[in-house]
Amino acid sequence: DGVAVRQIGKETFHVARQLVDEVVLVTTDEICAAIEDIFEDTRSIAEPAGALAVAGMKRYVNEHQISGEKLVGIVSGANMNFDRLRNVAERAEIGEQREALLAVHIPEVPGSFLKFCGLLKKRSITEFNYRYSDESEAYVFCGIELGHGDEERRQLLQLLAKHGYTATDLTDNETAKLHIRYMVGGHAPQVMHEKLFRFQFPERPRALLDFLTQVGTRWNISLFHYRNHGAAYGRVLIGIQLQTNKEKKAFTASMDELGYRYWDESDNPAYHIFASP
User: Fold this and answer.
1) Same domain (yes/no): 111, 180
2) Helix, strand or coil for residue 163?
3) What is the pLDDT of residue 68?
4) Domain of 75: which CATH number?
5) Are 201 and 87 contained in the same domain?
6) Average pLDDT estimate for 59-75
7) What's the domain range around 32?
8) Beta strands 233-241 and 194-202: pairing type?
């Protein structure tokens, strides 16, 4: 990007020494949030370097608790590739402190997902990645919507600890955001009788919780992937251990009762290559 240089230019440095009073450092997430702010206000898409002044201004205002003042940020470029927008949108929520990313340790028993989601109450889950790995314990990678920024994130971690969950905060972990979130899963040879289903449901409050409530403690979840992309419909990929055709019929009958659209993906070649037991 325009500011990702090893050394500042000679003339730029000379001008900065004469005219710049203070330098503000911002994160990639804060720059993405600034791009979103500019788009929401002007319907213009700035490049990351072009939105840098707005990101720095927002941080400066927050650090110095400024209010009631008129501030100016120069939007200096729009050299944005379309394929970069997905990454910008992904990171903007964290930059605005509207999303927390956590690795949470939960018991490997039926109903664990439901209990965990119930603990979050009205908070929306933005991402949920899980793959069976051990018969007694599991780690899930999850994104949780925040309404009150970093303070709520701290309260959330305290809440989870109070109820016996070990949670690692990955919100500021660059490797987790760039790579690990997409690598949760893989083959699980120890999983028996797994059937794979893809679900689509209206993206509304409690929709995911309603889905997990219907699954309940009757069936064991061995794979789970969900990501809220801001669309009208949420999408879930779920692996369920169903030993007999009778169990499969009972499961599909229960899902039919729920009313969400779903597809049996147990024979999907991508699943067998990368994720099936």
Assistant:
1) yes
2) coil
3) 92
4) 3.40.50.1100
5) no
6) 93
7) 10-95
8) antiparallel
Residue 104 CA to residue 71 CA, distance in Å, equals 41
**How many domains does the chain contain in total?**
2
240-253 pLDDT, tens digit each: 999 999 999 999 99
Backbone angles phi, psi at 148, to 5 degrees: -135, 35
CATH number (domain holding residue 112):
3.40.1020.10
Do both 189 and 118 map to the same domain? yes
For tokens 């501030």, the residue is: 71
Q: Are 153 and 147 contacting, i.e. CB atoms less than 8 angstroms apart?
A: no
Burial class from Cβ neighbours inside 10 Å (0-12, 13-18, 19+) for residue 239 reads: buried
Question: Does residue 4 lie in a domain region?
Answer: no
Q: What angle do CA 94, 85, 268 make, to 5 degrees?
A: 90
| 81 and 151 assigned to the same domain | no
Could you give the C-alpha distances from 170 to 91, 103, 123, 267, in angstroms and in order?
13, 7, 18, 34
Strand, helix or coil at 19? helix
| 62-83 b/e (C-beta count within 10 Å ≥ 16 → b) | eeeeeeeeeeebebeeeebeee
* Nearest to 214, CA basis, from 108, 134, 110, 140: 110
pTM of the model: 0.69
